[in-house]
Amino acid sequence: MNVRRVISGTAIAAATALGLGALSACSSDSSASDRNVTGQLDVVASFYPMQYLAEQIGGRHVSISTLTEPGQEPHDLEISAKQTAQLQEADAVLYLKGLQPAVDEAVSQSEAKTKIDAATLTTLEDHGSTEHSHEGEEAHSDEDASALDPHVWLDPVKYAEIADGVSAAFQKADPTNAAEYKLNTKALTAKLTSLDTSFEDGLKNTASKVFFTNHAAFGYLAERYGLTQEAIAGVDPESEPSAARMKELQQEAKADGVTTVFYETLVSDKTAKTLAEDANLKTDVLDPLEGITEKSRGDDYIAVMEANLKALQTALGAK
């Protein structure tokens, strides 16, 4: 079991420093003009986890638009001309570099006053295309091997570090409402700390520590709570697994007492169901929270993460 890392004042201070360093240059006397006609900070978020942070931290002082529509797979997003214009006119853009190449390119070319890259507000790690490599397994591409895993929002502790950096950015862009941004961030951090405690306690004693997923989105969550993620596909949810990989997973399911293959709402469940049928396993949803739709088990980040915890507890045989 990994040693639990709590959301500490030190981590928050570090994230704040990173957040301030990640902001594009913007003098304090320009902040008064960094407001839309309604008097709100005009924020463009790249996809749902960034939108949620902007909503929770910004509250009534921000106007938020999101580049990724509900139900759209974020990895595949292409930026429209209208969205390019939104980025040019925004007071702030909040995104996660490395997740959506089209967004990264559009943001780099935009003249948004404040650019907040969530990837700079915590420490990203290389989890590979699966949680660990196996001798004799087909070599992954250089791109997969070197890429840092962007799915950091699925670890509540790291997500809280990002939240504090976003808060620092909002306070700098709109100092008039800084006190309220700080209060909102404190409330959000309390929710994320409580969620972290629920996962820590809920997954402490389980019959198995291994879970199967459709794609490798849960590396940070697995590492945080002492679990092992085995992904059918890699970090790209659309990649096709080899026959050897499918056979290997069937064998591992027997060895590690795996009961369930998890799939997700925004990607086809065909491969997960094929493996489940071949290995006589159940299927269930583990939501990577890349978007909220009518299929989601909850209407916001906290609710869906709580549903994910219940699904993991059932699959792993929590005691």
How would you describe what is shown here?
The chain has 319 residues and is α/β, with parallel strands linked by helices. The protein has 11 helices and 8 strands. The strands form 2 sheets. The chain has a 4-stranded parallel sheet, with helices on both faces. The protein has a 4-stranded parallel sheet with strand order 6-5-7-8, with helices on both faces. Helix 4 (101-109) links the parallel strand 3 (92-95) and strand 4. The radius of gyration is 20 Å and the shape is globular. The two termini are 16 Å apart.
How are the elements arranged and paired?
Blueprint: H1 9-22, E1 41-45, H2 48-58, E2 62-66, H3 81-89, E3 92-95, H4 101-109, E4 114-117, H5 142-146, H6 156-173, H7 178-202, E5 210-213, H8 219-224, E6 228-231, H9 243-256, E7 260-263, H10 270-279, E8 282-285, H11 301-316
Parallel strand pairs: 1-2, 1-3, 3-4, 5-6, 5-7, 7-8
